[in-house]
Specification:
- With 111 residues, the protein is mostly helical.
- It has one domain: Orthogonal Bundle (Arc Repressor Mutant, subunit A).
- Helices cover 41% and strands 7% of the residues.
- The strands form two sheets. Strands 1-2 form a two-stranded parallel sheet.
- Strand 3 and strand 4 form a beta hairpin.
- Helix 2 crosses helix 4.
Length: 111
């Protein structure tokens, strides 16, 4: 992922943990979704799913860094702090390779 100087400055203002979460999140391919717990495992903090969610809530580069691709383990969407909130998260997930939702739950597969 290539970031502009302005985007790099925004990331630099975050804590090292928040940056680690967001940079790992940036690796999630379009059309896929993972859970907060899986993202926590990927950064080497397997018991930090809630902290991962809090870090994603501070994402100053949404949707460039695609925090909308991270959902709860039970399939519920979780939060989305960018403009439009959950409505935007739903629209982004549906648009990306047709990820399917039933109510406010993402239908498998997601990891």
């Amino acid at each position: 992922m290539k970031l502009t100087a302005k985007q790099k400055k925004k990331l630099a203002a975050l804590t090292p943990f928040q940056r680690k979460v967001l940079l790992e999140c940036a690796k999630i391919p379009k059309g896929e979704a993972i859970t907060y717990a899986e993202l926590a495992r990927r950064i080497g903090k397997p018991h930090s799913a809630r902290a991962v969610g809090n870090a994603l809530a501070k994402n100053p580069l949404a949707p460039v860094i695609p925090c909308h691709r991270v959902v709860r383990s039970d399939g519920k969407l979780g939060g989305y702090s960018a403009k439009g909130g959950q409505k935007t998260k739903v629209a982004l997930l549906e648009r990306e390779c047709g990820l399917r939702l039933r109510g406010r739950r993402l239908l498998p597969p997601f990891s």
